[in-house]
Design a protein that fits this description.
- The protein is α+β, with helices and mostly antiparallel strands.
- It folds into 2 domains: 2-159, Glutaredoxin (3-Layer(aba) Sandwich), CATH 3.40.30; 169-276, Glutathione S-transferase Yfyf (Class Pi), Chain A, domain 2 (Up-down Bundle), CATH 1.20.1050.10.
- It has helices at residues 59-70, 112-119, 145-153, 172-187, 189-194, 199-222, 233-252, 264-274, 285-295, and strands at 2-6, 9-13, 50-54, 77-81, 131-134, 139-142.
- Strands 4-3-5-6 form a 4-stranded mixed β-sheet, with helices on both faces. A two-stranded antiparallel sheet has the order 1-2.
- A hairpin with a 2-residue loop joins strand 1 and strand 2.
- Helix 7 (233-252) packs across helix 8.
- It is globular, with a radius of gyration of 19 Å.
- It binds glutathione.
- The site of glutathione (GSH) has 12 residues, from loops.
């Protein structure tokens, strides 16, 4: 269940945007400003200035949480974790109802759509995570995960410990090409399977998804990471889909061609990234499972949470060093 804002007013709707052939269409993110290290820039990289609204469940928001953790930006960028259940008000901020959900220190909002309306009183569109709020100008700077990830890894990087470079300039083109390549078939592909409105649209998405996984299974047999021997943004972007695949997408979104566990290289890669210091702490499997299985009544009307599979293999040695 979810909904959207129209002129700042919330409308509940249990439907996802579809094209003529029943294919799932994801809306474009609307807040697209950039933090820049220039004296006259509207948004400058300053510690304590920005606040991130995330869900542990969401693969897009998860990208930004992993980058924040790997780069040591926890003190520079504060966070609100929404409640895992997305109901008829969309994402809600209800720390009193869950041990891992947190409060909104800025707006004291109980619904994320109030934060969007505060940023833009006539906002029309979906209310999504991640969203990066600027305390100084009182608005959302950006709500597109890939761009928030890039800003954290580049212009905000010096606000952290500076030990890792997730976006080295010489690799930037390769990173962008990889992320462009696997976005539709893989990251969005699992949703295109799960939210397809026709068998044909589902079959199309399913075929593209497993072709893409086969491609990366081969690439990751030749190199440790997506863009070579260094961990980059592209690995984070792939990881947040893979880590949800066996426990959720395989069952809930009918992506049951093969488990990630059955791919030697993809499963090794998943373990490698998962075990990278700072990553595991951002993976909240309870929020992930409860969110998906309980928030999409059109996909799973009884809202039972699938109990398997055993994920202890995430902690087994990856052997990719
Ligand atoms: N393109 C966005 C997509 C974000 C997105 O769709 N997030 C989902 C959660 S996984 C959401 O908040 N959906 C709420 C809704 O669409 O109502 C990004 O990458 O940041």
């Amino acid at each position: 269940m979810s909904g959207f804002l129209t002129n700042g007013e919330w409308v509940t709707q249990d439907q996802w945007e579809k094209g003529k052939g029943g294919e799932f269409r994801r809306q474009k993110s609307q807040f697209r400003d950039w933090i820049e290290d220039a004296p006259d820039a509207r948004f400058r990289p300053e510690p304590g200035r920005y606040h991130l609204y995330v869900s542990y469940a969401c693969p897009w928001a998860h990208r930004t949480l992993i980058a924040r953790s790997l780069l040591g930006l926890q003190d520079a960028v504060s966070v609100t974790v929404v409640h895992q259940h997305m109901g008829d008000q969309g994402w809600e901020i209800r720390p009193e109802d869950d041990a891992d959900a947190t409060a909104d220190p800025i707006h004291h909002a109980t619904k994320l759509h109030r934060v969007y309306a505060a940023a833009k009183p006539d906002f029309t569109g979906r209310v999504t995570v991640p969203a990066l709020w600027d305390r100084e100008t009182g608005t959302i700077v950006n709500n597109e995960s890939r761009e928030i990830l890039r800003m954290f890894a580049t212009v905000m990087r010096d606000l952290g410990h500076g030990e890792l470079d997730l976006s080295p300039a010489p690799l930037r083109e390769a990173i962008d090409a990889a992320m462009d390549r696997f976005y539709q078939p893989l990251n969005n592909g699992v949703y295109r399977c799960g939210f397809a409105g026709t068998q044909d649209a589902y079959a199309q998405a399913f075929g593209e998804l497993f072709a893409e996984l086969d491609h990366w299974e081969k690439v990751l047999g030749e190199q440790r990471y997506v863009c070579g021997d260094q961990l980059t943004e592209a690995d984070i972007a792939m990881f947040t889909t893979l880590v949800r695949f066996d426990p959720v997408y395989y069952v809930h979104f009918k992506c049951n061609g093969r488990l990630i566990q059955q791919y030697p290289n993809l499963s090794g890669f998943l373990r490698d990234v998962y075990q990278h210091p700072g990553v595991k702490e951002t993976v909240n499997m309870r929020h992930i499972k409860e969110h998906y299985y309980q928030s999409h009544p059109s996909v799973n009307p009884r809202r039972f949470v699938a109990l398997g599979p055993d994920l202890s293999w995430y902690d087994e040695p990856h052997g990719r060093g």
